[in-house]
Write a structure and sequence with these properties.
Helix content: 40-55%
Pfam families: HTH_20
Protein name: Transcriptional regulator
Structural class: alpha+beta
Order of helices and strands: EEHHHHEEEHEHH
Number of helices: 7
Radius of gyration: 22 Å
Number of strands: 6
Length: 211
Amino acid sequence: MILPWTIFVFGASLVGMHDVAVIEDPAAAEVSLDPIRTRLLAELVEPGSATMLASRVGLPRQKVNYHLRTLEQHGLIELVEERRKGNVTERLLRATAASYVISPAALAAVAPDPGRAPDRLSARWLLAVAARLVRDVGSLLTGAAQARQRVATFALDGEVRFASAADRAAFAAELAASVAGLVSRYHSESGRKHRLVVAVHPALDSLVEDR
């Protein structure tokens, strides 16, 4: 039985907090991986100040301020509002996104290359293709945000259960043939190039069921 499919047609948001942001800069990636800063990023889905965060994470305000400055310098959080309280100006900050993905571009020298050993039945090659997808879409989103434009994309996500390995192989063959037919029908040498990725892999919870 095929479970409900989720279809995504989306573009880069132009205002407010993004659902997902891609970290491409190696220094920003390093900063984001610090456990304390990761906790602060999670807390800053809603605007907060150093004083507010200090009580939540159990650290001195000065220490929290240090981490907030570092996150702000690398574009992971942003100033939302400044409030005057007596002689003190309270800065309310917010994460630039609700969640983050580190792009393979941050590890450019050792980033996976799908062209190195293409093998459509290899899980490692699938991983390399997925890494390129993260890198390319992240780069597109960054450029679109700077130009205040949207990125036209389409994604399909779902699950299917196969009765046997033979059925799975037949499904893959029919899927490949169907995609090839669609490409042949709509491809135009003068058109704008798009990257097409089709993947099938075991669901993680299926590994638990098999044990």
